[in-house]
Amino acid sequence: MNVIDVIEKEHMKAEIPKYSVGDQVDVTIKIKEGEKERTQIFSGLVIAKNGGGIRETFTVRRIVQGEGVERVFPIHSPKVLDVKVKKSGKVRRAKLYYMRDRTSKGIRLKEKRVE
Fold first, then answer.
1. Which of 4, 24, 29, 53 suits 13 as a labelling partner, its CA being 20 to 30 A distant?
2. b/e map of 92-111 (b: 16 or more CB within 10 Å)?
3. pLDDT at residue 67 in the model
4. 31 by DSSP, 3-state: which?
């Protein structure tokens, strides 16, 4: 096994939450402010997944006061505590960058049926 693979495997999380592009998620992150640490929830739509292994990231988009806010989270980061799926959306694309141009009603996705 490659030396880099061994080092990367040590830092990877044992369990990765199951989510996909088009899901409404709540990402719980740890924020350090001065000496204190607190948790904050960033909720929004997963519009992209990138990379693999230790470099895997996902992009979450939400609307705050009429402005779109996107944030990229590395899934294996110790600062990302939890990813909870609120709703699963039915999509036919791997990247939902077209959602950036949409507003209000156009942002809604059909819900994926689980049978």
1. 24
2. eeeebeebeeeeeeeeebee
3. 87
4. strand
